[in-house]
Design brief:
Blueprint lengths: L1 H31 L3 H18 L3 H23 L17 H34 L1
Helix pairs in contact: 1-2, 1-4, 2-4, 3-4
Length: 131
């Protein structure tokens, strides 16, 4: 059961904070979409906190890559008339959008890791039950 305790101590705090910051990002976009500079600043703070929790170059690279790739994808969709934004700034997308794409990527990665850790705990419990 030591493995379970290690997984819970390692994953649970990051899980809780990641989920809270993800919810804050969602609420910030919903409430502040009309104020581009303030929303951009709020999302940058959330992103900074999210990346500070686990200082790793892989998550930073994922954040940057997905922020750029997401923004480029949105720009292409807008160029072909699929949708528009109410207050576009650069390249017909809001300034805060690449930051949100980066947050979404890190959130998705950590959610995957949470699910993976949960299944490891279940496997360990199953092994202890069957022996």
């Amino acid at each position: 059961m030591l493995l379970i305790e290690k997984l819970v101590k390692k994953v649970l705090p990051i899980t809780v904070y990641t989920d809270i910051l993800g919810a804050f990002a969602l609420f910030a976009v919903s409430l502040l979409w009309w104020n581009v500079p303030v929303l951009t600043l709020v999302l940058l703070i959330i992103a900074g906190l999210l990346l500070y929790m686990r200082s790793g170059n892989q998550e930073i690279a994922l954040f940057v890559f997905c922020g750029i790739a997401g923004a480029v994808s949105e720009t292409i969709g807008i160029f072909f008339g699929a949708w528009t934004y109410a207050l576009p700034t650069a390249f017909q997308i809001p300034l805060w959008l690449p930051v949100l794409w980066g947050i979404a990527a890190v959130f998705t990665l950590r959610t995957y890791e949470q699910i993976e850790a949960f299944w490891k705990i279940r496997e360990v419990k199953f092994l202890f039950r069957s022996s």
